[in-house]
Specification:
Shape: globular
Strand order of the largest sheet: 11-12-10-13-14-9-15
Structural class: alpha/beta
Radius of gyration: 29 Å
Number of strands: 21
Largest sheet: 7 strands, parallel
Strand content: 15-25%
Number of helices: 27
């Protein structure tokens, strides 16, 4: 049986090398199976017109529309000085709106002959803006001919009332993908079904081959529904089985139980707290202490709104472990953040952080900082303190993970802002314990419940949703700079007013401004018409200091500065010596300056929803109310503006994380950025399909408990291997 199973057949054999190459490079599709699982994004019905009114900017779109008119213009240009340049402008309509298409040069002849008024076609291209109007430059198109037409092949390809529209790229239009799928569709018969029969029958789901056929060549909307509900179950179930197996394996690992001493470091710390913990902090601390007291490693995700007191909960867990004779390490994603955590933890602990020093308390331990840019002497001392157990707590960046770093007895790892950490890094740190240490992962990016079940499915979740007493509300407003320039002027006045009242402010920009511009990069006509480049810290700081904020002390902070300079800038700002800090998103996480009350975010439409929420959390951290102004030039009706309005309308991070997710689609949810692997979710919508995910989680747990190795379910094993090719298995493992 040397034959390659039909679904593993490489696409270059079936479709030919050129097409296969584009599919591999641009869509990540390599085999027949990959292509069969490249599902339509939606379906167009013949005779039903797409909405041109709500096209997204900068995205590749496919629309079905009718040509309203076509005009050929000649113009003079560098290449055609005698007015011989040609430009074809075609207006298409679909009842909801109109869209301009443009073709240049030699590319005008074919469309000029074919795109006559009244012609209907599919058009695909990237939406750009020219002269404040939406347009597609050089779109690909496929005419939709009536049945009477002689081109039988086209009619055949578009046969059936529903036209599948595939996620496509500039190099490969939706209909070409559709034709390729028609070629491989017969192989769907050989797809191995991963769902146990009992589960499939119990839930009335169609077999996999039938689902694949119905998703690519549906005759009715009911076909699409059948196929979707089946394929969603596959994705949810296989993923949950992977996570259930992780949890099962983790539950077998040994760990040292860490119980705090009755009158040790933790009690000494609690006795000095100038405030009482919130109910939420007490509840979450209890969950953590219960986990630490068991002989299996804790794997817990602690999510809390910006400023809900996560650091306090984490510090108490670290003190408990030190009490029990172990050491605790806290990993931060940036040096600025590691230094801040170190400073605030040493302040919170007072003389309890002065172990072995004169004036230190009898229960004290040492709290050391370890980052890549420390001087050799300080670094050597920190490493020594870790090996000898003089330091109970270490805070650092991924410099902690280097081979040279040895612990005496690592008992707990706290990872701050997990989504910034590569997975290998977290694992490397885990390997520093004699037995696997307990793990606490913290994030201030609220994660909806289903995403937590999907992405962090192998972690137990704790949520801190109360803000500590004395935190102030933040007012947020959108400032439409293009429509109402006077609003922007007023924004700078507001920053001045805050400074006059003794407060400080941030101005956040999307880029630094010292980037090299590549002169070799040729600009296409679309680029020329595109939006201007994003505003930069260095330019904006300069303009503000000379203009609307003249006379105030303005400083800049960005990621490419030397670490000592960054720290100096942060110290001056924290000390109140600087009035306004113009920064990139380096301030997004963990920067704590209670006196800063105003934040202006330039080009706010270039940031994601969660990121805006994180940034906004940097103001209103003291007793004075915070103000956040979201500056944008996007037009009123654009999706970008709607997104900003949503951020301005609510301070509830969980609500915003839902909006964010609905807008980003699930591709990003499974940590695209961290794993680099293609997301395994093509059909499952993490937000809408909450029920399926929850049910799949239960079913998966039952299957794994009964048969951890899945010996009786070969189909499921195959699907699992495909989902978790090595890289993903690694990623989930460390997820």
């Amino acid at each position: 049986m040397d034959l390659v199973p039909a679904l593993e057949e490489p696409l270059k054999k079936v479709l030919g090398p050129p097409t296969a190459k584009v599919m591999a490079e641009h869509l990540g599709l390599h085999t027949v199976g990959d292509l069969l699982h490249h599902y339509p994004r939606r379906y167009e019905e013949r005779g039903q017109l797409t909405h041109l009114a709500d096209l997204p900017m900068d995205e590749h779109v496919t629309v079905v529309a009718q040509v309203a008119d076509a005009r050929l213009h000649t113009f003079a240009s560098a290449k055609a000085p005698r007015g011989k340049g040609q430009r074809l402008e075609v207006t298409i309509t679909d009842g909801s709106g109109r869209l301009q298409l443009v073709f240049f040069g030699a590319g005008v002849h074919k469309p000029h002959k074919e795109l006559l008024p009244g012609t209907r076609a599919l058009f695909a291209g990237k939406v750009s803006v020219f002269n404040r109007r939406l347009q597609l430059a050089h779109p690909a198109y496929e005419l939709l001919r009536g049945d009477g037409d002689g081109a039988a092949e086209t009619v055949e390809a578009w046969a059936g009332a529903l036209i599948p529209i595939y996620p496509a790229t500039a190099k490969l239009e939706s209909w070409k993908i559709g034709k390729a799928i028609q070629t491989v569709l017969p192989s769907a018969q050989e797809a191995v079904d991963p769902l146990p029969d009992s589960l499939r029958d119990g839930r009335g789901l169609v077999p996999l081959p039938e689902a694949l056929l119905k998703i690519h060549r549906p005759h009715t909307k009911a076909d699409i529904e059948d196929a979707r509900s089946r394929l969603k179950w596959d994705e949810a179930f296989v993923l949950q089985v992977a996570l259930a197996r992780r949890r099962h394996a983790d539950a077998q690992l040994p760990a040292v139980a860490r119980r705090p001493k009755p009158d040790g470091l933790l009690s000494a710390f609690d006795a000095r707290l100038p405030f009482t913990l919130t109910e939420g902090q007490q509840k979450v601390s209890k969950e953590i202490f219960d986990d630490l007291a068991t002989e299996h490693p804790m794997h817990r995700l602690l999510q809390g709104e910006v400023g809900s007191g996560k650091t306090m909960v984490a510090l108490r867990a670290m003190l408990a472990v030190v009490d029990a004779g172990g050491q605790a390490a806290m990993l931060a994603p940036t040096e600025v953040l590691a230094q801040q955590h170190h400073r605030s933890i040493v302040e919170m602990m007072g003389d309890l952080a002065e172990g072995g020093m004169l004036g230190g308390s009898e229960h004290a331990t040492k709290v050391v900082l370890l980052t890549g840019s420390m001087g050799m002497a300080a670094r050597r001392q920190a490493l020594l303190d870790l090996v000898t157990a003089d330091a109970g707590i270490v805070i650092g960046t991924h410099a902690l993970i280097e081979d040279k770093v040895q612990f005496h007895d690592l008992g707990l790892v706290v990872v701050d802002e997990q989504h910034r950490f590569g997975v290998e890094q977290r694992d490397a740190l885990r390997g520093k314990g004699k037995q696997p240490p307990h793990l606490l992962v913290m994030t201030a990016t609220p994660i909806p419940r289903t995403v937590a079940m999907t992405v962090f499915g192998d972690l137990e979740t704790s949520v801190l949703d109360q803000l500590p007493a004395g935190r102030s509300p933040i007012a947020s407003h959108v400032v439409p700079a293009a429509d109402k320039p006077h609003f922007l002027a007023r924004a700078w006045e507001r920053v001045r007013e805050e400074v006059e009242n003794g407060h400080q402010g941030y101005v956040v920009c999307p880029r630094i401004g010292d980037e090299e511009v590549d002169p070799k990069k040729k600009k296409s006509p679309e680029d020329e018409a595109e939006k201007r480049p994003p505003l930069a810290v260095l330019e904006v700081a300069d303009q503000l200091a000379k203009g609307p904020l003249q006379g105030l002390r303005v400083e800049v902070l960005h990621g490419r500065m030397h670490p000592d300079d960054k720290d100096a800038v942060m110290r001056r700002f924290a000390a109140g010596e600087t009035h306004v800090l113009v920064a990139t998103t380096v301030i997004e996480v963990g920067v704590n300056v209670p006196n800063a009350t105003a934040m202006v975010i330039m080009d706010a439409d270039r940031f994601g929803v969660s990121q805006l929420h994180q940034l906004r959390g940097r103001v209103g951290r003291g007793s004075a109310a915070g103000l956040c102004l979201l500056v944008t030039e996007m037009p009123e009706a654009s999706p970008a503006r709607q997104r900003l309005n949503a951020v301005a309308a609510t301070l509830d991070g969980f609500e915003l994380s839902r909006i964010d997710l609905e807008q980003r689609r699930e591709g990003d949810v499974l940590g695209q950025a961290q794993s680099g692997a293609r997301t395994s979710l093509r059909m499952l919508a993490v937000i809408e399909d909450e029920e399926i995910i929850a049910e799949a989680r239960e079913e998966a747990a039952a299957v794994v408990a009964a048969d951890p190795e899945l010996t009786h379910l070969p189909g499921l094993r195959t699907a699992l291997d495909a989902l978790l090719d090595e890289e993903r298995e690694q990623y989930l493992e460390k997820g």
